[in-house]
Amino acid sequence: MEIGFIGLGSMGGPMSRRLVEAGHKLTVFDTRKEAMEPLLKLGATAARSPADVADRVETVMTSLPSLDIGLKVATGDDGLIRGNRVRRYVDLSTTGSRAAIKTAEILKERNIVQIDCPVSGGVAGAEKGTLAVMVSGPKEEVEPLRSALEVFGKVFYCGDKPGMAQSMKLANNFLSATGMAASCEAIAMGVKAGLDPSLMCDVINAGSGMNTATTQKFPRSVLPGTFDYGFGMALMVKDVRLFLAEAQDYGIPIEVAQAVGKLWEKALAEHGPTSDFTEIAKTVEKGAGIQMRAPKK
Ligand code: NAD
């Protein structure tokens, strides 16, 4: 099918490549020219703005780094809302349900249907097509997209109301953020006690403490000290803040989330928004006075 794709970064780059390779006809836009080049080489068409994308295709996907940028790209002066052909807006970004509901209402006035479609599984999952793809929106609008979404990974239909897939995604990312923060503290404790951090991951991964920090993030980016996992610190903190806000909206207990959020805010202050999220390990290392390094296996 003909698809517009806006935001060709760490996730949007490989996801749009997979769409082209699966035979879809893509029109792409990113504010960074260098992000567009690999797609154009594969045969995608370049657009000049989100509005230009939306003038050329009925289905527009976005994968953008912040809520403000997402809102501007969807509803701003040069946003896709100005396009003449667009009928479906598929947002692959993590925005939380509040933002999703707001955008959906604005777009509805122009007869554009919003489909929330946040994904989980990181850059590696985007490259391989093994993401968890969480979708919400009118079923009759989601079904025609299913084959395109399956290019990204396993598709889970989460409900028909705007924002439902976003709530699902926030729950997932809160657990991912918590696993990472808690694993840093657990492994720091062990290293302080004289244990090898690499052995600790092996034991945890054979035991009940296993989580994606010990199976993937530590072995790939913390133990070898590369801190190159591909998910920005600002993005992780955005997701934790969104979870806290949404949990507060619903009045659920957030004692764990508040503690986890505090550590992520500290890591953001220490390492900056463009650092890799795995650098939270350095924050814990600094506090503990140790390093959690081991040669890459
Ligand atoms: P990124 O920063 O790598 O990519 C964002 C892209 O958007 C960049 O190429 C940037 O140039 C482009 N962009 C910025 N402003 C723009 C504008 N006004 N118009 C057009 N393009 C613009 O971010 P990412 O890591 O790919 O994340 C994108 C979304 O996916 C975020 O919501 C993030 O939370 C979510 N996500 C990321 C990961 C991950 O592991 N990186 C995993 C799951 C979900």
Spell out the key features of this protein:
297 residues, alpha/beta, six-stranded parallel beta sheet, three-stranded mixed beta sheet, 9 strands, 13% strand, binds nicotinamide-adenine-dinucleotide
Describe the protein in words.
- The protein is α/β, with parallel strands linked by helices.
- The protein has 14 helices and 9 strands.
- It has helices spanning 12-21, 33-41, 50-56, 67-75, 96-108, 122-128, 139-142, 146-149, 164-192, 197-206, 212-222, 233-250, 255-271, 280-288; strands spanning 2-6, 25-29, 45-46, 59-62, 88-91, 113-116, 119-120, 131-136, 153-159.
- The chain has a 6-stranded parallel sheet with strand order 3-2-1-4-5-6, sandwiched between helices. The protein has a 3-stranded mixed sheet with strand order 7-8-9.
- Helix 1 links the parallel strand 1 (2-6) and strand 2 (25-29).
- Helix 9 crosses helix 13, helix 9 packs parallel to helix 14 (280-288) and helix 12 (233-250) runs antiparallel to helix 13.
- The model has no long low-confidence stretch (mean pLDDT 97).
- The protein binds nicotinamide-adenine-dinucleotide.
- Residues 6-12, 29-32, 35, 63-65, 69, 73, 93-94, 119-120, 122-123, 230-232, 235 line the site of nicotinamide-adenine-dinucleotide (NAD).
- Residues 6-12, 29-32, 35, 63-65, 69, 73, 93-94, 119-120, 122-123, 230-232, 235 line the site of nicotinamide-adenine-dinucleotide.
Percent of residues in helical segments? 40-55%
Order of strands, main sheet, comes to: 3-2-1-4-5-6
Determine the mean pLDDT: 97
Q: What is the terminal-to-terminal distance?
A: 42 Å
Radius of gyration of CA atoms, rounded to a whole number: 20 Å
The rough form would be described as globular
